[in-house]
């Protein structure tokens, strides 16, 4: 797990043109779900392209603790022998989800409607994050939660012995909360309904349909109304995990700001609930060609040809786009620093409760690199300095946050002076091959 070992400082220096092909690993969100839905199906689910990042490995371990047989057969090739909806056994020990909010929140959901007790914990970052957003709706099913003040981990969930179905309107735009409610609804009789005002990533809905659940989505004035019929028998699936658009963001953005770059990033998801960053970059004037659009692993994907773009302009990012690019604001704020004019990111207060307070982490690190920032609770504004205009020459604090670490390393590849991060070890949670992949493209990274 990240955050349990020694800090690993890393430095990025102004790099030669990036070139070549950046084959990024499997999607983190889909990888967690493939393991969890596989564990809730009856029989053997086969997975290819699974992200073998620490977050996902922690979820695999958790599924074993609940009684599923999870086996690695080769690189990215895994199988899960599931125990069926309601078939989990009570774990004999504390479930440690490491750095992963997705892991812990989804797993709480899938055990909350079975008659058992489980205790969850995580690393120092995860232990700061709010769990009330998940335990509030789980209480409506009849589950009880006992955690630290502020709804923090470690936390014990006593599952509902006689769960009732729930109708729940999400108070925050969160795919994790939506998914936790749907997973809990699987083992409740009758129909569980989740209403989301703004669409968030829809991997759980797609996968539930794939595994044979009865689910339908209605689009109305209230937003999306998702209805799930409880207590289905889920059928095992073969899941081909597509590449992660949130990981692809790092080589894509590096190529945009490192002079002379020209790279290909194959198989990047164009799922409308995930592609907000790519729309935003194009609006800023990024040279990205979307080649060979097709479907892979049930997701629309394209190969991205990305060239250095020295004339990008800052824009106002529409707040309603936030859910489709929520993990990409840190790297977008780096690109914004190399664009001309201001980039205004409003409606982003959810960033304050991610692996770190990402508004604060980006603001402090970019300021240390010589960039002017304005911020408030819900807003981040970056004053761009143009291509090659960021001074750099600083060390950013990463606060156990993989995306903060990778964002500042990308910044250092194009800044005038090197940029260091105090700890690159969290990168293994989502993008274990980041260092090799980026140096393979021509980036200069040193430990
Ligand atoms: C995720 C949902 C997002 C995202 C996280 C992964 C998921 O969180 O930030 O990295 O897999 O459902 P929220 O849904 O809480 O915004």
From TrEMBL:
<feature type="binding site">
    <location>
        <position position="354"/>
    </location>
    <ligand>
        <name>3-phosphoshikimate</name>
    </ligand>
</feature>
<feature type="binding site">
    <location>
        <position position="176"/>
    </location>
    <ligand>
        <name>phosphoenolpyruvate</name>
    </ligand>
</feature>
<feature type="binding site">
    <location>
        <position position="358"/>
    </location>
    <ligand>
        <name>phosphoenolpyruvate</name>
    </ligand>
</feature>
<feature type="active site" description="Proton acceptor">
    <location>
        <position position="327"/>
    </location>
</feature>
<dbReference type="InterPro" id="IPR013792">
    <property type="entry name" value="RNA3'P_cycl/enolpyr_Trfase_a/b"/>
</dbReference>
<dbReference type="InterPro" id="IPR001986">
    <property type="entry name" value="Enolpyruvate_Tfrase_dom"/>
</dbReference>
<feature type="binding site">
    <location>
        <position position="129"/>
    </location>
    <ligand>
        <name>phosphoenolpyruvate</name>
    </ligand>
</feature>
<feature type="region of interest" description="Disordered">
    <location>
        <begin position="1"/>
        <end position="25"/>
    </location>
</feature>
<dbReference type="GO" id="GO:0009073">
    <property type="term" value="P:aromatic amino acid family biosynthetic process"/>
</dbReference>
<dbReference type="InterPro" id="IPR036968">
    <property type="entry name" value="Enolpyruvate_Tfrase_sf"/>
</dbReference>
<dbReference type="Pfam" id="PF00275">
    <property type="entry name" value="EPSP_synthase"/>
</dbReference>
<dbReference type="GO" id="GO:0005737">
    <property type="term" value="C:cytoplasm"/>
</dbReference>
<comment type="similarity">
    <text>Belongs to the EPSP synthase family.</text>
</comment>
<dbReference type="GO" id="GO:0003866">
    <property type="term" value="F:3-phosphoshikimate 1-carboxyvinyltransferase activity"/>
</dbReference>
<protein>
    <recommendedName>
        <fullName>3-phosphoshikimate 1-carboxyvinyltransferase</fullName>
        <ecNumber>2.5.1.19</ecNumber>
    </recommendedName>
</protein>
<keyword id="KW-0057">Aromatic amino acid biosynthesis</keyword>
<comment type="subunit">
    <text>Monomer.</text>
</comment>
<comment type="pathway">
    <text>Metabolic intermediate biosynthesis; chorismate biosynthesis; chorismate from D-erythrose 4-phosphate and phosphoenolpyruvate: step 6/7.</text>
</comment>
<dbReference type="GO" id="GO:0008652">
    <property type="term" value="P:amino acid biosynthetic process"/>
</dbReference>
<feature type="binding site">
    <location>
        <position position="28"/>
    </location>
    <ligand>
        <name>phosphoenolpyruvate</name>
    </ligand>
</feature>
<feature type="binding site">
    <location>
        <position position="29"/>
    </location>
    <ligand>
        <name>3-phosphoshikimate</name>
    </ligand>
</feature>
<dbReference type="InterPro" id="IPR006264">
    <property type="entry name" value="EPSP_synthase"/>
</dbReference>
<dbReference type="GO" id="GO:0009423">
    <property type="term" value="P:chorismate biosynthetic process"/>
</dbReference>
<feature type="binding site">
    <location>
        <position position="33"/>
    </location>
    <ligand>
        <name>3-phosphoshikimate</name>
    </ligand>
</feature>
<keyword id="KW-0028">Amino-acid biosynthesis</keyword>
<feature type="domain" description="Enolpyruvate transferase">
    <location>
        <begin position="13"/>
        <end position="436"/>
    </location>
</feature>
<feature type="binding site">
    <location>
        <position position="327"/>
    </location>
    <ligand>
        <name>3-phosphoshikimate</name>
    </ligand>
</feature>
<comment type="function">
    <text>Catalyzes the transfer of the enolpyruvyl moiety of phosphoenolpyruvate (PEP) to the 5-hydroxyl of shikimate-3-phosphate (S3P) to produce enolpyruvyl shikimate-3-phosphate and inorganic phosphate.</text>
</comment>
<feature type="binding site">
    <location>
        <position position="176"/>
    </location>
    <ligand>
        <name>3-phosphoshikimate</name>
    </ligand>
</feature>
<feature type="binding site">
    <location>
        <position position="174"/>
    </location>
    <ligand>
        <name>3-phosphoshikimate</name>
    </ligand>
</feature>
<keyword id="KW-0808">Transferase</keyword>
<feature type="binding site">
    <location>
        <position position="101"/>
    </location>
    <ligand>
        <name>phosphoenolpyruvate</name>
    </ligand>
</feature>
<dbReference type="InterPro" id="IPR023193">
    <property type="entry name" value="EPSP_synthase_CS"/>
</dbReference>
<keyword id="KW-0963">Cytoplasm</keyword>
<feature type="binding site">
    <location>
        <position position="28"/>
    </location>
    <ligand>
        <name>3-phosphoshikimate</name>
    </ligand>
</feature>
<feature type="binding site">
    <location>
        <position position="403"/>
    </location>
    <ligand>
        <name>phosphoenolpyruvate</name>
    </ligand>
</feature>
């Amino acid at each position: 797990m990240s955050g349990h070992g020694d800090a690993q400082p890393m430095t990025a220096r102004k790099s030669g043109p990036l070139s070549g092909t950046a084959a990024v690993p499997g999607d983190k969100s889909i990888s967690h779900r493939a393991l969890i839905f596989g564990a809730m199906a009856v029989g053997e689910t086969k997975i290819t392209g699974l992200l073998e990042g620490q977050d996902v490995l922690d979820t695999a371990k958790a599924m074993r603790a609940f009684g599923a047989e999870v086996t690695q057969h080769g690189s990215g090739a895994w199988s899960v022998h599931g125990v069926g909806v309601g078939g989990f056994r009570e774990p004999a020990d504390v479930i440690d989800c490491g750095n992963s909010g997705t892991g812990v929140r989804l797993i709480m959901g899938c055990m909350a409607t079975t008659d058992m007790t489980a205790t969850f914990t995580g690393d120092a970052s995860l232990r700061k994050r709010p769990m009330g957003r998940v335990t509030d709706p789980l209480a409506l099913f009849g589950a009880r939660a006992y955690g630290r003040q502020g709804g923090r981990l470690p936390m014990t969930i006593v599952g509902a012995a006689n769960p009732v179905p729930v109708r729940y309107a999400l108070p925050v735009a969160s795919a994790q909360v939506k998914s936790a409610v749907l997973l809990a609804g699987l083992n409740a009789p009758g129909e569980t309904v989740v209403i989301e005002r703004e669409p968030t990533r829809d991997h759980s809905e797609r996968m539930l349909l794939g595994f044979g659940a009865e689910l339908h989505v209605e689009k109305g004035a209230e937003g999306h109304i998702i209805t799930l019929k409880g207590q289905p028998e889920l059928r095992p699936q073969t899941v081909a995990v597509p590449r992660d658009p949130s990981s692809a963001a790092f080589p894509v953005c590096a190529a945009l700001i490192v002079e002379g770059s020209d790279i290909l990033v194959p198989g990047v998801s164009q799922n409308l609930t995930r592609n907000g960053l790519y729309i935003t970059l194009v609006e800023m004037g990024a040279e990205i060609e979307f080649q060979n659009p097709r479907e892979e692993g049930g997701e629309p994907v394209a190969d991205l040809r990305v060239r250095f773009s020295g004339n990008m302009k800052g824009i106002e990012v529409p707040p309603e786009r936030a859910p489709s690019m929520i993990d990409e604001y840190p790297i977008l704020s780096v690109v914004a620093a190399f664009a001309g004019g201001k980039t205004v990111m409003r409606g982003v207060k959810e960033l304050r409760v991610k692996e770190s307070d990402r508004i604060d982490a980006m603001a402090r690190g970019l300021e240390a690199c010589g960039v002017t920032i304005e911020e408030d609770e819900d807003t981040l504004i970056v004053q761009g300095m143009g291509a090659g205009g960021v001074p750099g020459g600083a060390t950013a604090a990463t606060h156990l946050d993989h995306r903060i670490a990778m964002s500042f390393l990308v910044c250092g590849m194009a800044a005038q002076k090197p940029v260091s991060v105090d700890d690159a070890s969290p990168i293994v949670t989502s993008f274990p091959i980041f260092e090799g992949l980026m140096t393979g493209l021509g980036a200069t990274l040193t430990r």
